Amino acid sequence: QSALTQPPSASGSPGQSVTISCTGTSSDIGAYNYVSWYQQHPGKAPKLMIYEVNKRPSGVPDRFSGSKSGNTASLTVSGLQAEDEADYYCSSYGGAELFGGGTKLTVL
Amino acid sequence: EVYLVESGGGLVQPGGSLRLSCAASGFTFSTYWMDWVRQAPGKGLEWVASIKKDGSQKDYVDSVKGRFTIFRDNAQNSLYLQMNSLRVEDTAVYYCVRDRAYATFDCWGQGTLVTVSS
Q: Which residue of A has its CA nearest to B43?
């Protein structure tokens, strides 16, 4: 069982917004502002989408945003597009297990 | 552009050994921590090991301590993972990743598959 807890699945229709949560503890998410989110399409390597809670690397659309409250971090995808369908993983510095279990995002 | 290219994966029997390599280009290799992350078939991501810029500090997930060794050659812009006493549960795609700071992995290789089976 992963130290960071994510819902196994999430879904939304094109154009809608969806939020994926990542719950940790006061030793990881609650203690550091080093939360990252990764997108992984089938058969591909993961891609960094958000780092340090809410920063986007160059080239990542601003439809992707991150936030944190207490021991829970969130990734919001606005204006859902078909290509957003993928697995999403959160991670946080400080945890015994670095990554969450992953959330499969389905665009309906 | 940043490139990380892994090699060395393959089929090995339980108890066997394998060495993974990662060739880095497009950035100043010696100024970054580097890590290995793995993904078992159909499963999530698991951090395996990390190494400091100069190789002076190494960390491992508990399940590989004493069996795996991470090391690097900054002159050759290369990262390695020596895997000994391999177990069936080590079967996974192994990714070489660049760590921008505090376990933030901003660049990933394409991965190399390690299969441990008799």
A: A101
Angstrom CA distances, B25 to A83, B5, B74, B88, B101, stand at: 29, 9, 11, 32, 19
The mean pLDDT of B35-49, rounded to a whole number, is 96
Q: Is the pLDDT of residue A2 over 60?
A: no
Pairing of strands B92-101, B78-83: unpaired
Tokens standing for residue A56: 């986007």
Q: Please, which contacts does B62-67 make with residues 24 or more away whose CB atoms are closer than 8 Å?
A: B63/B89, B64/B90
Instruction: Name the residue facing A101 among B44, B102, B109 (closest C-beta).
Output: B44
Facing residues of B20 across strands?
B81
Q: In terms of Cα–Cα distance, which of A96, A63, A33, A45 is closest to B113?
A: A45
Residue found by looking up tokens 């006493």 in the block:
B85
Alpha carbons B19 and B68: distance in angstroms, whole number: 9
- State the Cα torsion A35-A14-A44-A61 to the nearest 10°: -50
Question: Predicted confidence band at A98 (pLDDT cuts at 50, 70, 90)?
Answer: confident
**Set of chain B residues whose Cβ sits within 8 Å of the Cβ of A52:** 104
Residues A33, A54: Cα–Cα separation, whole Å: 9
- Tell me the pLDDT tens digit for each residue of A40-54: 999 999 999 999 999
pLDDT category, A87, cuts 50, 70, 90?
A: very high
